[in-house]
Protein backbone atom coordinates (compact mmCIF):
# COMPACT_ATOMS: atom_id res chain seq x y z
CA UNK A 1 0.00 0.00 0.00
CA UNK A 2 1.44 3.37 -1.05
CA UNK A 3 1.55 5.97 1.71
CA UNK A 4 2.84 9.52 1.93
CA UNK A 5 5.73 8.53 4.18
CA UNK A 6 8.90 9.84 2.60
CA UNK A 7 11.18 11.10 5.40
CA UNK A 8 11.07 14.84 5.95
CA UNK A 9 14.36 16.69 5.69
CA UNK A 10 14.95 17.97 9.21
CA UNK A 11 17.71 20.26 10.43
CA UNK A 12 20.67 18.73 12.23
CA UNK A 13 20.34 20.63 15.51
CA UNK A 14 21.24 20.15 19.15
CA UNK A 15 17.71 18.87 19.77
CA UNK A 16 18.08 16.14 17.18
CA UNK A 17 21.14 14.92 19.05
CA UNK A 18 19.42 15.37 22.41
CA UNK A 19 16.56 12.96 21.64
CA UNK A 20 18.44 10.33 19.62
CA UNK A 21 19.32 8.15 22.67
CA UNK A 22 15.59 7.88 23.51
CA UNK A 23 14.35 6.61 20.15
CA UNK A 24 14.62 2.89 20.85
CA UNK A 25 12.83 3.14 24.20
CA UNK A 26 10.11 5.35 22.66
CA UNK A 27 9.52 2.83 19.86
CA UNK A 28 9.22 0.00 22.39
CA UNK A 29 6.66 2.01 24.38
CA UNK A 30 4.66 2.72 21.24
CA UNK A 31 4.60 -0.99 20.36
CA UNK A 32 3.23 -1.83 23.80
CA UNK A 33 0.67 1.00 23.91
CA UNK A 34 -0.71 0.29 20.43
CA UNK A 35 -1.27 -3.33 21.52
CA UNK A 36 -3.86 -2.14 24.04
CA UNK A 37 -7.38 -1.94 22.59
CA UNK A 38 -8.42 1.32 24.23
CA UNK A 39 -11.73 1.92 22.52
CA UNK A 40 -14.31 3.16 25.03
CA UNK A 41 -16.28 0.12 26.26
CA UNK A 42 -19.54 0.92 28.09
CA UNK A 43 -19.97 -2.77 28.99
CA UNK A 44 -16.94 -2.72 31.31
CA UNK A 45 -17.40 0.74 32.85
CA UNK A 46 -16.91 0.81 36.62
CA UNK A 47 -15.87 3.29 39.29
CA UNK A 48 -12.21 2.47 38.70
CA UNK A 49 -12.66 2.30 34.92
CA UNK A 50 -15.02 5.16 33.95
CA UNK A 51 -14.36 4.56 30.24
CA UNK A 52 -14.08 0.77 30.32
CA UNK A 53 -11.30 -1.74 30.90
CA UNK A 54 -9.40 -1.09 27.67
CA UNK A 55 -8.95 2.61 28.34
CA UNK A 56 -8.02 1.83 31.96
CA UNK A 57 -5.34 -0.58 30.80
CA UNK A 58 -3.84 2.10 28.54
CA UNK A 59 -3.92 4.74 31.29
CA UNK A 60 -2.33 2.26 33.70
CA UNK A 61 0.40 1.54 31.17
CA UNK A 62 1.24 5.24 30.88
CA UNK A 63 1.24 5.54 34.68
CA UNK A 64 3.77 2.72 35.01
CA UNK A 65 5.89 4.20 32.23
CA UNK A 66 5.80 7.61 33.88
CA UNK A 67 6.94 6.18 37.22
CA UNK A 68 9.96 4.58 35.53
CA UNK A 69 10.79 7.89 33.85
CA UNK A 70 10.86 9.82 37.12
CA UNK A 71 7.45 11.50 37.17
CA UNK A 72 5.10 11.73 40.13
CA UNK A 73 1.92 9.90 39.13
CA UNK A 74 -1.72 10.67 39.97
CA UNK A 75 -4.39 8.34 38.51
CA UNK A 76 -7.10 11.04 38.90
CA UNK A 77 -9.97 8.61 39.63
CA UNK A 78 -9.24 6.72 36.41
CA UNK A 79 -10.13 9.69 34.19
CA UNK A 80 -6.63 10.97 33.50
CA UNK A 81 -3.08 9.78 34.16
CA UNK A 82 -1.21 12.84 35.39
CA UNK A 83 2.59 12.77 35.24
CA UNK A 84 4.15 15.67 37.17
CA UNK A 85 7.75 16.85 37.25
CA UNK A 86 9.44 19.82 38.85
CA UNK A 87 8.33 22.72 41.00
CA UNK A 88 7.61 26.37 40.41
CA UNK A 89 4.91 29.00 40.48
CA UNK A 90 4.26 28.49 36.76
CA UNK A 91 2.80 25.39 35.17
CA UNK A 92 3.28 23.89 31.73
CA UNK A 93 0.61 21.40 30.70
CA UNK A 94 0.91 18.85 27.88
CA UNK A 95 -2.28 17.04 26.83
CA UNK A 96 -2.41 13.73 24.98
CA UNK A 97 -4.95 10.91 25.00
CA UNK A 98 -4.94 7.13 25.26
CA UNK A 99 -8.43 6.39 23.96
CA UNK A 100 -8.96 5.62 20.27
CA UNK A 101 -11.94 5.50 17.93
CA UNK A 102 -13.62 2.17 17.07
CA UNK A 103 -12.25 -0.11 14.35
CA UNK A 104 -13.65 -2.59 11.85
CA UNK A 105 -10.79 -5.13 11.79
CA UNK A 106 -12.02 -6.80 8.60
CA UNK A 107 -11.52 -3.51 6.74
CA UNK A 108 -7.87 -3.20 7.77
CA UNK A 109 -4.95 -4.75 5.92
CA UNK A 110 -3.17 -5.03 9.29
CA UNK A 111 -4.15 -5.91 12.84
CA UNK A 112 -5.19 -2.50 14.22
CA UNK A 113 -3.84 -3.39 17.67
CA UNK A 114 -0.45 -4.66 16.58
CA UNK A 115 2.16 -2.09 15.63
CA UNK A 116 3.11 -3.20 12.11
CA UNK A 117 6.18 -1.74 10.40
CA UNK A 118 6.41 -1.74 6.61
CA UNK A 119 9.37 0.27 5.41
CA UNK A 120 9.03 3.69 7.01
CA UNK A 121 5.33 3.20 7.82
CA UNK A 122 3.90 2.23 11.21
CA UNK A 123 0.33 0.92 11.05
CA UNK A 124 -2.04 0.65 14.01
CA UNK A 125 -4.99 2.36 15.65
CA UNK A 126 -3.62 5.29 17.61
CA UNK A 127 -0.28 5.53 15.81
CA UNK A 128 -1.10 9.09 14.74
CA UNK A 129 -4.13 9.79 16.97
CA UNK A 130 -2.84 10.10 19.59
CA UNK A 131 -0.57 7.47 21.08
CA UNK A 132 2.32 8.09 18.67
CA UNK A 133 2.39 11.89 19.06
CA UNK A 134 1.82 11.62 22.81
CA UNK A 135 4.80 9.34 23.29
CA UNK A 136 6.98 11.44 20.96
CA UNK A 137 6.29 14.40 23.19
CA UNK A 138 6.70 12.44 26.42
CA UNK A 139 10.15 11.18 25.49
CA UNK A 140 11.15 14.67 24.36
CA UNK A 141 10.27 15.86 27.87
CA UNK A 142 12.26 12.97 29.34
CA UNK A 143 15.31 14.02 27.32
CA UNK A 144 14.96 17.58 28.63
CA UNK A 145 14.48 16.33 32.20
CA UNK A 146 17.68 14.32 32.04
CA UNK A 147 19.50 17.34 30.63
CA UNK A 148 18.25 19.46 33.58
CA UNK A 149 16.37 21.80 31.25
CA UNK A 150 12.94 21.45 32.85
CA UNK A 151 13.90 23.01 36.18
CA UNK A 152 12.11 26.04 37.59
CA UNK A 153 8.61 25.24 36.32
CA UNK A 154 6.06 22.58 37.16
CA UNK A 155 5.28 20.32 34.22
CA UNK A 156 2.09 18.24 34.08
CA UNK A 157 1.85 15.67 31.31
CA UNK A 158 -1.79 14.57 31.11
CA UNK A 159 -2.95 11.46 29.26
CA UNK A 160 -6.75 11.46 29.09
CA UNK A 161 -9.20 8.63 28.52
CA UNK A 162 -12.15 10.25 26.74
CA UNK A 163 -10.92 12.71 24.11
CA UNK A 164 -12.69 10.95 21.26
CA UNK A 165 -16.14 11.06 22.89
CA UNK A 166 -16.29 14.49 24.46
CA UNK A 167 -13.43 14.95 26.94
CA UNK A 168 -15.23 13.98 30.13
CA UNK A 169 -11.73 13.15 31.37
CA UNK A 170 -10.50 16.75 31.45
CA UNK A 171 -13.91 17.92 32.62
CA UNK A 172 -13.34 15.73 35.68
CA UNK A 173 -9.73 16.85 36.03
CA UNK A 174 -10.42 20.58 36.00
CA UNK A 175 -13.93 20.83 37.42
CA UNK A 176 -14.26 17.91 39.84
CA UNK A 177 -10.68 17.50 41.03
CA UNK A 178 -10.13 21.28 40.73
CA UNK A 179 -6.59 20.86 39.47
CA UNK A 180 -6.27 24.40 38.13
CA UNK A 181 -5.34 25.72 34.72
CA UNK A 182 -1.77 26.10 33.45
CA UNK A 183 0.33 29.11 32.57
CA UNK A 184 0.61 27.57 29.09
CA UNK A 185 -0.50 24.29 27.60
CA UNK A 186 0.08 22.37 24.37
CA UNK A 187 -1.57 19.32 22.86
CA UNK A 188 0.32 17.10 20.37
CA UNK A 189 -2.90 16.09 18.64
CA UNK A 190 -3.33 18.14 15.49
CA UNK A 191 -1.13 19.77 12.84
CA UNK A 192 1.94 21.91 12.38
CA UNK A 193 3.03 24.60 12.42
CA UNK A 194 0.70 25.56 15.32
CA UNK A 195 -3.07 25.73 15.88
CA UNK A 196 -4.12 29.10 17.28
CA UNK A 197 -7.89 28.54 16.93
CA UNK A 198 -10.44 25.75 16.94
CA UNK A 199 -14.06 25.72 15.84
CA UNK A 200 -16.88 25.26 18.30
CA UNK A 201 -17.98 21.64 18.25
CA UNK A 202 -21.52 20.53 19.09
CA UNK A 203 -23.84 17.64 18.31
CA UNK A 204 -27.50 17.74 17.49
CA UNK A 205 -30.32 15.33 16.74
CA UNK A 206 -32.55 16.01 13.75
CA UNK A 207 -35.83 14.06 13.87
CA UNK A 208 -38.25 13.36 11.03
CA UNK A 209 -41.55 11.52 10.75
CA UNK A 210 -40.91 9.05 7.96
CA UNK A 211 -42.62 6.14 6.26
CA UNK A 212 -40.03 3.61 5.09
CA UNK A 213 -41.08 -0.02 4.75
CA UNK A 214 -37.89 -1.39 6.30
CA UNK A 215 -36.90 -3.08 9.55
CA UNK A 216 -35.60 -0.77 12.31
CA UNK A 217 -31.90 0.06 11.97
CA UNK A 218 -28.97 1.89 13.54
CA UNK A 219 -26.04 3.11 11.44
CA UNK A 220 -22.78 4.61 12.69
CA UNK A 221 -20.54 4.06 15.71
CA UNK A 222 -19.21 7.55 16.55
CA UNK A 223 -20.44 11.00 15.61
CA UNK A 224 -16.98 12.23 14.61
CA UNK A 225 -16.47 9.56 11.93
CA UNK A 226 -18.04 9.50 8.46
CA UNK A 227 -20.25 6.36 8.36
CA UNK A 228 -18.58 3.79 6.12
CA UNK A 229 -21.18 0.99 6.26
CA UNK A 230 -24.97 1.00 6.26
CA UNK A 231 -27.51 -1.73 5.61
CA UNK A 232 -31.17 -2.49 6.25
CA UNK A 233 -33.81 -5.12 5.61
CA UNK A 234 -36.42 -4.23 2.99
CA UNK A 235 -39.97 -5.33 3.81
CA UNK A 236 -41.47 -4.68 0.36
CA UNK A 237 -40.74 -3.69 -3.26
CA UNK A 238 -37.89 -6.20 -3.72
CA UNK A 239 -38.31 -6.40 -7.48
CA UNK A 240 -38.14 -2.62 -7.78
CA UNK A 241 -35.09 -2.65 -5.51
CA UNK A 242 -33.22 -5.04 -7.80
CA UNK A 243 -33.60 -2.68 -10.74
CA UNK A 244 -32.89 0.43 -8.68
CA UNK A 245 -29.59 -0.87 -7.26
CA UNK A 246 -27.90 -0.92 -10.66
CA UNK A 247 -29.27 2.45 -11.76
CA UNK A 248 -28.33 4.00 -8.41
CA UNK A 249 -24.74 2.75 -8.59
CA UNK A 250 -24.35 4.09 -12.12
CA UNK A 251 -25.77 7.48 -11.16
CA UNK A 252 -23.41 7.79 -8.19
CA UNK A 253 -20.10 6.93 -9.85
CA UNK A 254 -20.01 3.23 -9.18
CA UNK A 255 -21.10 3.46 -5.54
CA UNK A 256 -20.64 0.15 -3.72
CA UNK A 257 -24.27 -0.87 -3.20
CA UNK A 258 -25.69 -4.39 -3.30
CA UNK A 259 -28.87 -6.30 -2.59
CA UNK A 260 -28.46 -9.68 -0.90
CA UNK A 261 -31.90 -11.23 -0.57
CA UNK A 262 -33.92 -8.56 1.17
CA UNK A 263 -30.95 -6.71 2.69
CA UNK A 264 -29.55 -3.68 0.89
CA UNK A 265 -26.05 -2.50 1.84
CA UNK A 266 -23.82 0.44 1.00
CA UNK A 267 -20.07 0.70 1.53
CA UNK A 268 -18.68 4.21 1.88
CA UNK A 269 -15.34 5.78 2.77
CA UNK A 270 -14.67 6.74 6.42
CA UNK A 271 -12.74 9.83 7.49
CA UNK A 272 -12.55 12.30 10.35
CA UNK A 273 -15.82 14.07 11.07
CA UNK A 274 -14.19 17.51 10.86
CA UNK A 275 -13.80 17.08 7.08
CA UNK A 276 -16.77 14.96 5.97
CA UNK A 277 -16.23 16.00 2.34
CA UNK A 278 -13.11 13.81 2.31
CA UNK A 279 -15.19 10.66 2.83
CA UNK A 280 -18.28 9.04 1.38
CA UNK A 281 -21.12 8.67 3.86
CA UNK A 282 -22.79 5.28 3.37
CA UNK A 283 -25.78 6.30 5.48
CA UNK A 284 -26.61 9.30 3.31
CA UNK A 285 -26.45 7.27 0.11
CA UNK A 286 -28.63 4.50 1.54
CA UNK A 287 -31.17 7.05 2.76
CA UNK A 288 -31.30 8.48 -0.74
CA UNK A 289 -31.81 4.99 -2.18
CA UNK A 290 -34.66 4.30 0.24
CA UNK A 291 -36.17 7.68 -0.59
CA UNK A 292 -36.42 6.71 -4.25
CA UNK A 293 -37.59 3.16 -3.52
CA UNK A 294 -40.41 4.24 -1.18
CA UNK A 295 -41.19 7.66 -2.67
CA UNK A 296 -40.08 9.44 0.51
CA UNK A 297 -39.00 12.95 -0.46
CA UNK A 298 -37.64 13.81 2.98
CA UNK A 299 -35.06 11.00 2.82
CA UNK A 300 -33.79 12.35 -0.49
CA UNK A 301 -33.71 15.89 0.89
CA UNK A 302 -31.55 14.79 3.84
CA UNK A 303 -29.10 13.32 1.35
CA UNK A 304 -28.94 16.56 -0.62
CA UNK A 305 -28.70 18.75 2.46
CA UNK A 306 -25.80 16.91 4.10
CA UNK A 307 -23.89 15.44 1.15
CA UNK A 308 -21.35 18.28 0.80
CA UNK A 309 -20.81 18.43 4.55
CA UNK A 310 -20.78 22.24 4.59
CA UNK A 311 -24.46 23.16 4.89
CA UNK A 312 -24.66 25.41 1.81
CA UNK A 313 -28.07 24.09 0.78
CA UNK A 314 -29.68 25.24 4.04
CA UNK A 315 -27.68 28.46 4.51
CA UNK A 316 -25.52 26.90 7.19
CA UNK A 317 -22.07 27.54 5.73
CA UNK A 318 -20.90 30.06 8.35
CA UNK A 319 -17.46 31.69 7.98
CA UNK A 320 -15.37 34.41 9.59
CA UNK A 321 -11.87 35.88 9.43
CA UNK A 322 -10.27 32.82 11.05
CA UNK A 323 -12.44 29.93 9.86
CA UNK A 324 -13.33 29.38 6.23
CA UNK A 325 -16.29 27.00 6.60
CA UNK A 326 -18.70 25.09 8.81
CA UNK A 327 -18.94 21.29 8.78
CA UNK A 328 -21.85 18.92 9.35
CA UNK A 329 -21.02 15.23 9.71
CA UNK A 330 -23.85 12.69 9.87
CA UNK A 331 -22.29 10.24 12.31
CA UNK A 332 -25.30 8.16 13.35
CA UNK A 333 -28.77 7.42 11.95
CA UNK A 334 -31.58 5.43 13.60
CA UNK A 335 -35.06 4.39 12.47
CA UNK A 336 -37.73 2.73 14.63
CA UNK A 337 -40.41 2.32 11.96
CA UNK A 338 -41.92 5.77 12.43
CA UNK A 339 -39.20 8.27 13.26
CA UNK A 340 -35.84 8.80 11.60
CA UNK A 341 -33.21 10.37 13.84
CA UNK A 342 -30.09 11.85 12.27
CA UNK A 343 -27.21 12.68 14.64
CA UNK A 344 -24.84 15.36 13.41
CA UNK A 345 -21.36 16.39 14.52
CA UNK A 346 -21.34 20.16 13.95
CA UNK A 347 -18.25 22.41 13.78
CA UNK A 348 -18.47 26.17 13.21
CA UNK A 349 -16.48 29.40 13.75
CA UNK A 350 -15.78 30.16 17.39
CA UNK A 351 -17.20 33.69 17.10
CA UNK A 352 -20.71 32.48 16.19
CA UNK A 353 -23.32 31.59 18.82
CA UNK A 354 -24.43 27.97 18.82
CA UNK A 355 -28.05 29.06 19.23
CA UNK A 356 -27.91 30.85 15.88
CA UNK A 357 -26.46 27.83 14.10
CA UNK A 358 -29.02 25.41 15.54
CA UNK A 359 -31.88 27.82 14.84
CA UNK A 360 -30.81 27.97 11.21
CA UNK A 361 -30.74 24.17 10.89
CA UNK A 362 -34.26 23.88 12.28
CA UNK A 363 -35.58 26.72 10.13
CA UNK A 364 -34.12 25.56 6.82
CA UNK A 365 -34.14 21.74 6.96
CA UNK A 366 -37.64 21.06 8.24
CA UNK A 367 -36.38 18.83 11.04
CA UNK A 368 -37.16 18.89 14.74
CA UNK A 369 -33.70 19.76 16.08
CA UNK A 370 -32.39 19.04 19.59
CA UNK A 371 -29.00 20.29 20.75
CA UNK A 372 -27.16 17.44 22.49
CA UNK A 373 -24.12 19.25 23.88
CA UNK A 374 -20.58 20.16 22.98
CA UNK A 375 -17.96 22.81 23.61
CA UNK A 376 -17.08 26.29 22.43
CA UNK A 377 -14.04 26.92 20.30
CA UNK A 378 -11.34 29.51 20.86
CA UNK A 379 -8.93 31.88 19.17
CA UNK A 380 -5.58 32.89 20.68
CA UNK A 381 -3.54 35.83 19.42
CA UNK A 382 -1.25 34.26 16.82
CA UNK A 383 1.30 37.05 17.35
CA UNK A 384 1.60 36.38 21.09
CA UNK A 385 5.01 35.30 22.50
CA UNK A 386 3.45 31.92 23.34
CA UNK A 387 2.35 31.08 19.78
CA UNK A 388 5.45 32.60 18.22
CA UNK A 389 7.71 30.54 20.49
CA UNK A 390 6.11 27.35 19.18
CA UNK A 391 6.12 28.55 15.58
CA UNK A 392 9.80 29.49 15.69
CA UNK A 393 10.81 26.14 17.20
CA UNK A 394 8.98 24.32 14.41
CA UNK A 395 10.60 26.48 11.74
CA UNK A 396 14.10 26.11 13.15
CA UNK A 397 13.85 22.32 13.21
CA UNK A 398 12.13 21.82 9.84
CA UNK A 399 13.31 24.78 7.78
CA UNK A 400 9.67 25.47 6.82
CA UNK A 401 9.45 29.27 6.75
CA UNK A 402 6.24 29.52 4.70
CA UNK A 403 3.58 27.63 6.66
CA UNK A 404 1.44 29.87 8.84
CA UNK A 405 -0.47 29.32 12.11
CA UNK A 406 -3.80 27.58 11.55
CA UNK A 407 -7.39 27.73 12.77
CA UNK A 408 -8.96 24.29 12.36
CA UNK A 409 -12.19 22.34 12.55
CA UNK A 410 -10.72 19.51 14.58
CA UNK A 411 -11.15 19.63 18.34
CA UNK A 412 -8.29 18.96 20.74
CA UNK A 413 -7.76 19.06 24.47
CA UNK A 414 -6.62 22.68 24.12
CA UNK A 415 -10.27 23.75 24.10
CA UNK A 416 -10.87 22.09 27.47
CA UNK A 417 -8.16 24.15 29.18
CA UNK A 418 -7.02 27.77 29.11
CA UNK A 419 -3.95 29.45 27.59
CA UNK A 420 -3.48 26.31 25.48
CA UNK A 421 -3.07 25.40 21.82
CA UNK A 422 -2.55 22.30 19.69
CA UNK A 423 0.96 21.85 18.32
CA UNK A 424 1.71 19.04 15.83
CA UNK A 425 2.19 16.20 15.32
CA UNK A 426 0.98 16.08 11.70
CA UNK A 427 3.59 17.57 9.41
CA UNK A 428 2.54 19.83 6.54
CA UNK A 429 1.38 17.84 3.53
CA UNK A 430 0.87 14.62 5.47
CA UNK A 431 -2.37 12.61 5.80
CA UNK A 432 -2.32 9.75 8.29
CA UNK A 433 -5.90 8.45 7.87
CA UNK A 434 -6.81 9.38 11.44
CA UNK A 435 -10.14 7.73 12.35
CA UNK A 436 -9.94 5.71 9.12
CA UNK A 437 -8.90 2.19 8.19
CA UNK A 438 -5.16 1.45 8.23
CA UNK A 439 -4.30 4.54 10.27
CA UNK A 440 -0.54 5.04 10.13
CA UNK A 441 2.40 7.17 11.23
CA UNK A 442 5.79 7.27 9.47
CA UNK A 443 8.56 6.06 11.77
CA UNK A 444 10.69 9.07 10.89
CA UNK A 445 7.78 11.38 11.79
CA UNK A 446 7.62 9.67 15.20
CA UNK A 447 11.29 10.49 15.77
CA UNK A 448 11.24 13.92 14.11
CA UNK A 449 8.43 15.00 16.41
CA UNK A 450 10.62 14.24 19.41
CA UNK A 451 13.11 16.75 17.97
CA UNK A 452 10.50 19.48 17.40
CA UNK A 453 8.87 18.99 20.79
CA UNK A 454 12.18 19.07 22.64
CA UNK A 455 13.01 22.44 21.06
CA UNK A 456 9.55 23.92 21.60
CA UNK A 457 9.22 22.82 25.22
CA UNK A 458 12.76 23.95 26.04
CA UNK A 459 11.93 27.41 24.70
CA UNK A 460 8.55 27.50 26.45
CA UNK A 461 10.24 26.81 29.77
CA UNK A 462 12.65 29.68 29.09
CA UNK A 463 9.74 31.96 28.16
CA UNK A 464 7.85 31.10 31.35
CA UNK A 465 10.88 31.86 33.48
CA UNK A 466 11.42 35.23 31.76
CA UNK A 467 7.81 36.42 31.90
CA UNK A 468 6.61 38.18 35.03
How is this structure best described in words?
Helix 4 packs across helix 11. This protein has 11 helices and 22 strands. It is about 30% helix and about 25% strand. It has about 475 residues and is of the alpha+beta class. The mean pLDDT is about 95.
Q: Can you summarize this structure?
A:
The protein has 468 residues and is of the alpha+beta class. The chain has helices at 14-19, 23-34, 53-69, 131-146, 168-176, 238-251, 282-293, 297-306, 354-365, 385-398, 443-466, and strands at 72-74, 80-85, 91-97, 116-118, 121-123, 154-160, 184-187, 190-191, 195-198, 200-209, 217-219, 229-233, 256-260, 263-267, 327-335, 339-348, 368-375, 378-379, 406-408, 420-422, 425-426, 440-442.
Topology:
Blueprint: H1 14-19, H2 23-34, H3 53-69, E1 72-74, E2 80-85, E3 91-97, E4 116-118, E5 121-123, H4 131-146, E6 154-160, H5 168-176, E7 184-187, E8 190-191, E9 195-198, E10 200-209, E11 217-219, E12 229-233, H6 238-251, E13 256-260, E14 263-267, H7 282-293, H8 297-306, E15 327-335, E16 339-348, H9 354-365, E17 368-375, E18 378-379, H10 385-398, E19 406-408, E20 420-422, E21 425-426, E22 440-442, H11 443-466
Helix pairs in contact: 2-4, 4-11, 7-8, 10-11
- Biggest sheet, strands in spatial order? 1-2-6-3-7-20
Count of DSSP-assigned helices = 11
What is the approximate shape?
Answer: globular
Q: Uncertain segments of ≥5 residues (pLDDT<50)?
A: none
* DSSP strand tally: 22
Question: What is the subunit organization of this protein?
Answer: single chain
Helix and strand content put the structural class at alpha+beta
- Mean of residue pLDDT? 96
Measured on Cα atoms, how large is the radius of gyration? 23 Å
Q: What proportion of the residues is helical, as a percent range?
A: 25-40%
Sheet having the most strands: 6 strands, mixed
Question: How much strand?
Answer: 15-25%
Compute the separation of the termini in Å: 52 Å
Amino acid sequence: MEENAQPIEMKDTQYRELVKPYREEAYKALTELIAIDSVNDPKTVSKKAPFGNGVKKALDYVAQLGEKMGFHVDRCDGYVTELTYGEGNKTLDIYAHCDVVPVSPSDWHHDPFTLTKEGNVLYGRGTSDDKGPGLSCLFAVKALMDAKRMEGVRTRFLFGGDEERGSACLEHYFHVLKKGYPTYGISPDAEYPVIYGEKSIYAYEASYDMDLDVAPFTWGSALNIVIDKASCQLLSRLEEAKKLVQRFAEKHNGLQIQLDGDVVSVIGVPCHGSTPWNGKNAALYLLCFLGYLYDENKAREIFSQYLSGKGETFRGDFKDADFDCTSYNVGKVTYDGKTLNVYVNLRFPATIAKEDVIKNVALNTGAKVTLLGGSDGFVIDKDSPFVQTLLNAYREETGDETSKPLAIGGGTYARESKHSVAFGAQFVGREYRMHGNDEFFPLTDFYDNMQVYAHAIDNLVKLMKEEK
